[in-house]
Specification:
The protein is mainly alpha-helical and about 230 residues long. It folds into two domains: about 1-40, no CATH class; about 75-225, no CATH class. It has helices spanning about 75-105, 110-120, 125-155, 160-165, 180-195, 200, 215-220; strands at about 165-170, 220-225. It has a two-stranded antiparallel sheet with strand order 1-2. Helix 3 (about 125-155) crosses helix 5. The longest helix is centred in the middle third of the chain and has 30 residues, at about 75-105. It is rod-shaped. The relative contact order is 0.10.
Length: about 230
């Protein structure tokens, strides 16, 4: 006996095809409830029908890639120049206040007498005047050094001018620099200033990491704060 659906050979007394589950003839009344349905049959489906895949109700959305423009983390020449101008204004104000305070302490007449003695035949106070000028220069240089070295090695990582523009000074790995390295960077500016036409400073505009000459000497970077 052969199945009329799939053509497989089946025993003569079989009620269903062993291959596809097709009924082969009328079932005896006593066996109708004893014959199990095929494993893939379900309520509402014809016996032997293959499972139906659920309909596709949604389509995965496709997104176009977003192009993000990455801004260079290095601070360029013009940003650094503006920061330098701000710092210079702050330092000039501080030195001016220091000179005024010194004049108030020793008295204006002291400077007047020094000037008269230096212009006259007797200039015994001339060495004292020169000493005072040297002291003012020393205090000014020390103040500028401490201003740059302390601020750049502090948690702020930058002077007031750099902070105003969101700039920081780091080592070559982007870490906070020490006071010693900040001191070396400050005094390396003297070498930068010896290069004619300010080329040592202008290097910050065209070097790969926007480093001026003193940055290269001290192994530092000036970055934009993220």
């Amino acid at each position: 006996m052969f199945c009329s659906r799939c053509g497989a050979a089946t025993p003569e007394n079989a009620a269903f095809c062993a291959n596809c589950g097709q009924p082969l003839g009328p079932l005896p009344p006593e066996a109708a409830g004893a014959v199990p349905l095929p494993a893939f049959a379900a309520p509402g489906m014809s016996v032997g029908a293959p499972p139906i895949s659920p309909p596709v109700t949604s389509v995965a959305a496709t997104y176009a890639p977003t192009v993000v423009r990455v801004v260079s983390p290095y601070a360029g020449f013009w940003l650094r120049l503006i920061a330098y101008i701000i710092d210079s204004a702050v330092l000039l104000l501080g030195i001016g206040l220091l000179v005024v305070a010194g004049a108030l302490i020793v008295g204006v007449g002291f400077f007047h007498n020094i000037g008269e003695e230096m212009n006259g035949a007797e200039n015994a106070l001339a060495p004292l005047g020169i000493l005072f000028i040297l002291m003012v220069m020393f205090v000014a240089i020390a103040g500028v050094w401490l201003y740059y070295a302390w601020f750049e090695s502090s948690p702020y990582q930058g002077t007031l001018g750099k902070m105003a523009l969101g700039l920081i000074v780091t080592d070559m790995e982007g870490r906070r620099i020490t006071f010693g390295r900040a001191t070396g960077r400050f005094f390396a500016k003297m070498i930068t200033g010896l290069i004619p036409f300010f080329i040592g400073y202008i290097m910050a505009g065209f070097t790969q990491r926007k480093q001026a000459l003193h940055d290269i000497i001290a192994g530092c970077l000036v970055l934009r704060r993220v």
